Structure formats: C-alpha cells, structure tokens
Amino acid sequence: MFRIVMKRLQDKWKSYRYRFVPWIALNLGKNERTIRQVTERSKDRLVSDEVVSETLLHLFRALLRNDVAQQGEVFRLLPASTRTRYLSPETTEGPDIGEPKGEHRPIETMLLTVGFCIERKPSSLPFAGTGVFVTRGFVPKGSTVAMYPGTIYQAYEPILFQSIRNPFVFRCIDHVLIDGNDKGISKIVYRSCSGRDRLGPFRLSDITWLTANTENPLAVGQYVNNCSNERAANVCYQEYDVPEAFPLELRQYLPNVNYRHDTQRHRYGVKSISKVEGVRDETSLRVQTQKKCGRASRGWVPRVYRPAESTN
Q1: Which of 98, 197, 264, 306 is the least buried, fewest Cβ under 10 Å from its Cβ?
Q2: In terms of pLDDT, which residue wins out, 276 or 193?
Q3: How far apart are CA 309 and CA 173, in angstroms?
Q4: Number of alpha carbons in the 13 Å side-chain half-sphere of residue 248
Q5: Is the pLDDT of residue 182 over 60?
Q6: Is the pLDDT of residue 257 over 90?
Q7: Is the residue at 44 inside a domain?
C-alpha cells in the first residue's frame, strides 16, 4: 500500500515539478540548450509579422474556400468582388491550394496549402500528456506551425478561478495572459466572450478548438510540450498582433478572444510557433523556453527574464 501511494506521489511530482517555481529556478541553468537567448526585444522575432500574416491568410482563405457549403449566410453579405475570390475557381491562389470539394476537411486543406499538417496525439515524452505531431509533409525552417488559442487577459483582469489547476495559462513579455485551457471554467469563459463578439453571421473568433474537430488545424499550440534534456526543442514561440485590416470573413479562424470587449488595443497574442530546424513527418514538436527578453510556457516567467516595456 505504501509503495502504491509513493508511486502515485512520484508520478504527480514528475508532472507538477515543471510548474513548481523553486524547482524550475534551480534547474533552469543545467541545460543551456533548452533556453533561447534573446539579448534584445528587436531580435525576438525570427520571422516578420508580414510573413506570419501571409501564411495565415493563405491557409484561412483555403479553409473558407473549402467550406463554401456551410458559409452561405456569410457569403451573402460579402461584397461581390470578395465573394468572387472564393467562389470562382479562376481565383485560386496557386496550384498548392485545395479546390472546393463540398466537404470541409481542414487537415487535408492544410496539407495542400502549406505542405504539412499537425495533429494532437499522446506525447512521446514521459509524463507529458498530449503532444503535437507533424503527421504528414515537411516543415521548412521559418514556417508558422501552430497558434496558441485561448482567452486573452490584460495584466489587471481577473483570472484567479480560471487559473486553478490550469497548466495552459501562457504569460507574455508584457504580462498579458492567454488561457489556452479547453475545459472547465476556461471553456465557458471563452465561449461566452466569443458569442458576445459575434457580428451578425460573422464569427470574430474560432470556438471549434474547444472540441476534437477544430476548423483551424493550427490552433493546437497549447499542447506543444517543452523540450527536455534528452529531446532538444525544434520550435519556439513568437508573438503576433493581428492587424486591423485582417479580413472580416477570415476572423472566424482566429482562436483568441479578449476577456473584455472594450480592451483598447489590437487583438494580442495569437501565438505562432516558428521552426528552428526542419521537421519531417511523424515528429513531435517541442518548444524552447526563452531567456532574458522572452516568455516561458505554461504561465510562469523566470526571474532571469527581463520583461520588455508594454506596447500600445
């Protein structure tokens, strides 16, 4: 009986220690390869926002084009020129984008559009729960491979109850928090905020990431595990602000909402994960933590970090 209890406690500790601040502080410097060195905030971005926007627009347009049958109400309210872009086969933006097939298959659309697809599966790391795998295709260096979904909280907004036993709270360099939990109170809050922000038939955020059948296959970034001493990181986090000019009809694929509707800033913290090295199929994604001018996964920023000033 005693051995069983001790075994359970040991298993819980192996999972919890990565969220226990003193343990992290003592072990942070033991393996420098797990820490991404960022000496200046200007060097934090591995790829420009323009490149990230281009990738998202490329994929989202393909997803919408392949979901024409379910988007009738949205298309009726779009200008004729915009509607033609999605309904006319002559406007296909290149041979790699899937043609409308009458059936919405986001994973296949992603593969046809960006050359790879990712899915959630049991992690190959011990005690790591669910992980994210490249199941088909090849990911070139510098690609955007995932987004961190969830409710966005400014530093002054309440998140106490949502954060209890929640390993998916992500803290950004200016102390903005993103709650990427798809269960419990976090799920209820996200659904409520998403419904609040709806503009007629236009959904301004994606809620399908809360289910097993997400319409945006990128919205699994919260399940990308940290690297370990044995398994080096192959991705890193990069913050991205969605521009105001982002097409209204494509916002339904953005997996983030602001906690307050009157937040006086652009949508913040759609998390893109940029490749450090090329990744082939059947490879799990492992994220780096970042040192100095960066952010840590799972809601904690080490004291060795030096948060940059907030941006307007």
Answers
A1: 264
A2: 193
A3: 8
A4: 13
A5: yes
A6: yes
A7: no
93, pLDDT greater than 60: no
Is there a contact between 99 and 150 (Cβ–Cβ < 8 Å)? no
Residue 41 included in any domain: no
Please state the domain count of the chain: 1
Mean pLDDT of 67-82: 88
C-alpha–C-alpha distance, residues 255 and 176, integer Å: 16
C-beta atoms surrounding 109 within 10 Å: 23
Name residues whose C-beta falls within 8 Å of residue 177's C-beta, 6 or more positions apart in sequence.
Answer: 152, 153, 155, 159, 169, 170, 171, 299
- CA pair distance 293, 44, nearest whole angstrom: 7
Q: Which amino acid belongs to residue 34?
A: T
* Range of the structural domain that residue 74 is part of: 52-299
Residue 10 lies in a domain: no
> What is the rounded average pLDDT for all residues in the chain?
77
| H-helix or E-strand spanning residue 186 | helix 184-196
pLDDT classification of 58: cutoffs 50, 70, 90: very high
- Calculate the alpha carbon distances from 304 to 137, 228, 234, 286, 301 in Å: 37, 19, 22, 22, 8
Rg of the Cα atoms in the chain: 20
pTM above 0.90, yes or no: no
